[in-house]
Amino acid sequence: MSQADPSGLGRARAVGFVLPGLVLIGVFLVFPALWTIYLGLTDYRLTGLAAADPQVVGVDNYTTALGDERFRNSLWLTLQYVLGSAVIGQAVLGFAIAWVLRNRPGPVKRITEGLVLLAWILPSSVVAFLWIALLDRDDGTLNTLLHTPGFAWLLDYPMLSIIVFNVWRGTAFSMMLYGAALENVPPSHLETARLAGASTLQQLRDVVFPRIKGHVLTNLLLISLWTFNDFTSFQLTAGGPEGRSEILPVYIYNVALSGGQLGFGAAISFLVLLINLVFAFVYLRLLRDRRKVVVP
Amino acid sequence: MISLSGLTKEFPGGVRAVDSLDLEIGDGEFFALLGPSGCGKTTLLRSIAGLETPTSGKIRISGNDVTALPPGRRNVAMVFQDYALFPHMDVTSNIAYPLRIKKVSRSRREARAAETASRLSLSELLARRPGQLSGGQQQRVALARAIASHPQVFLFDEPLSNLDARLRLEARTFLKRLQRELAVTTVFVTHDQGEALALADRIAVMNAGRIMQVGTPSEVFHRPIGTFVAGFIGSTPMNLLPASAEGGRLHVAGAVLPLPGDIADGPLVYGLRPEYADLSQSAPTGRRDVFSGKVAVVENLGAAHLVTLDSGDLLIQVVVPEGDEPAVGAPAWAVPRTGRALLYRDDRLLTVA
Asked: Listed GO cellular component terms (chain A) (predicted)?
C-alpha cells in the first residue's frame, strides 16, 4: 500500500466519503460567509425599498462604521469584555481553581468541579434568567444579601455585571484545561523547586508555566474568540442602558435585526471576522515560535 | 548527622509506610535504605527531605529539629529517580537553579555552576538542554545541581535505576568516589541489594515500614539478623531450609550435621548461601553431612552456574564454577562449607554452623 493512500480506498471512493461533508460546509458555512461579504457591500434592509431592490454601495458601509462613534464605542467595550472576562477572569480564575484543587482528595475536588461545570453546561437562557433574578433591582438575591434594596446593578454597572456573569459562566473550560495541563507537570520538578526553597510564585514561574505554555496559549485563543463572539449578555442587558454594554455581537444584532440595516450589519460582521482572524493568527504564530524553540 | 526518633508516617486510609522508626546516620556517611517496593524506604527519604510530613516522631539534622521546617530550609539536596531537570533551561541554569532561588548573583552562580560542571566532566555541555543529553549525562547534571548548592545532606532516590546496565556500574563507581571526595552525609534509596552492598558504608534493610537490620555491607551479608534479610541480601537467594536439632545433631534435608554448642533441641531454619556450598558429582563415601539430590535446573551466570538440586521436596541451590556444571537429571551432592551456614530459630539468628 502506498504512502499517499494509507486507507486503501482509492481516489474515487475517498472523494465519495468526503463529498457530503464538503457540501454541507459549503452550503452552511462558505456560502453564507461569502453572501455576508456581498451583503456588506449593499444597502440591503429588512423592510422598505432597499429590501426589494438592494443597491451595491461599495465600501460605504465600512467607512460609515469606522466613522461611527457607536461602533467604536462598541469595539472598545468588546475589548474590555474580552480582557476582563476571558483573559483576566476566566483564565486566571480557572487556573487558580485548577492549581488549588490539583492535590485535593476526591470529594472536595469533585464537588467544586461539578459546581463550576454546572455553570458552563446550563442553557444560556436559563442562566440569564438566574442572573436576572440575582441582580434584580426590587427582589434580587444580591440586594437582599447585601442589604442594598433598590440598587440597580444592571443599570448602574452594566459592563461589570456582564463581565462577572461571563467569568462565572465560562471559567469551567479554563479550569478543566489547566487541570489537565497541570497533570503534565512532573511532581519531582515541583519538589526540586521546593527543595531549592522556591516560593509558590517561583514554582509557577520556573516549573509550571514553561511546561504548560502551549496550553495557556490554546486556552487564551479559544476563550477570547468565544468571548468576542458571545451573545449571551444580550439576555441580561440587551446592550443597554444607552449602549453602555453594547458589545459587538449585540451591536450587530441591534443594528441589523432591530434596526433593519442588514447590509450595514453584514459589513460589521465581516469586520468582526477579520478581528477574529487577527487574534487567531497572533496566537498561532506564538504557538509556532514556541515549538521552534522547544524542538532543537 | 541525621537522627530519626519514633518516626511514623501514616497515609490516609491507614497505610503505615513508616512505623515508629529510630535511626542515626553519621556525618559523612554513605547510607543505604534498602528494601522491596512498598517497604517505606522512599517515604522515609522524602520525610527527611521534608516532602512528606511525618504523622509523629522527630527528624534532626546536625542536632537541629527540622521536623516542622519546609524542604527549602533544611539545607538538603535531593536527586530524583527521573533527575527532574527543567527541560526549558540549559545545563548551566539547571545547575545554578538552587543558587538563583537563594539570590546568589548571576556571575557568582554561573562561576559555581561551571566549577561544579567541570568536576563532573560536564564542561562541554553547559549550553545544552536536558533533551540533548544522554541518560548518564542527565544524571550527572542532576548531581551537579545537588552539589552546587553545598547542602548538608544529599538524598538520592534510586539514583542508578534509570541507567542501562553497563552504565550503571560505571556510575556506581563514580558515585562512590564522588561521595568520598565530598564527604557529605548521603542517604540513598535502592531496591537493588547489589547496589547497596557496593556503595554504602552502612545499610538499613527495611520491610513493611520497619528497619529489619542496620549494619555494614559485610554485617548484613554475613550475619543477617533474620530470615527476611538473609533472603533479601545476596545476588542469588540464600537456601533457607527447615531443620531440627536433636541430641546434639542437626538434621537438614536428609543430611546430619554437627550442631554447634548450646542449642536446645527443636525446630530451626538452616540458611546457606549457594556460594558457600560445593557440588560433588560422585557420592562422597561415608559422609552424612551432605545434601543429595538430582540436578533440576542449571542457570548460566557467566563465570559460574547456579545449579538447583531437587532433594526430596526441597530445592537446594549451589553456585558451581564454570566448567564443572553437571548435566540436568544427574545425581549430585552439595557439601556445605563449615562456618558458613546460619541457624535461625523464631526468625532470629542463633549462631553460625
From this structure: plasma membrane
Tens-digit pLDDT string for chain A (296 aa): 456 777 778 888 888 999 999 999 999 999 988 888 888 888 777 777 667 777 778 778 888 888 888 888 899 999 999 999 999 999 999 999 999 988 887 788 888 888 888 888 888 889 888 888 888 878 878 877 887 777 777 778 888 888 998 999 889 899 999 999 998 899 999 999 999 999 999 999 999 999 998 899 889 989 999 998 888 888 888 877 887 888 889 988 988 888 878 888 888 888 888 888 998 888 888 877 766 554 43
Strand, coil or helix: what is B349?
strand
CB B331 within 8 A of CB B282: no
How far, in whole angstroms, is CA A294 from its chain's centroid? 28
Q: What is the pTM of this model?
A: 0.81
Distance of residue A289 Cα from the nearest chain B Cα, in angstroms: 14
Check CB contact under 8 Å for A193 and B101: yes
User: What is the rounded distance in angstroms from the CA atom of residue A190 to the CA atom of residue A185?
Assistant: 8
Q: Do A202 and B101 touch (CB under 8 A)?
A: yes
| B-interface mutation test, from A195, A200, A202, A213, most B Cβ less than 10 A away | A195
Q: What domains can you pick out in chain B, each with its CATH number? A: 2-232 (3.40.50.300), 239-352 (2.40.50.140)
Give chain A's domains with CATH numbers.
Answer: 68-260 (1.10.3720.10)
Strands of B15-25's sheet, edge to edge? Answer: B15-25, B2-11, B56-61, B64-65
Interface confidence, given as ipTM, is 0.85
- The three-point CA angle A191-A195-A201 to 5° equals 70
Q: Which of B73, B84, B87 sits opposite A192 (nearest CB)?
A: B84
3-state secondary structure of B213: strand
Distances (CA, A) of B121 to A72, B11, B93, B137, B225: 63, 41, 17, 9, 42
Residue pairs spanning A and B at CB distance below 8 A: 64
Q: Out of A188, A195, A202, whose CB is closest to B82?
A: A188
- How distant is the Cα of A111 from the closest Cα of chain B, in angstroms? 20
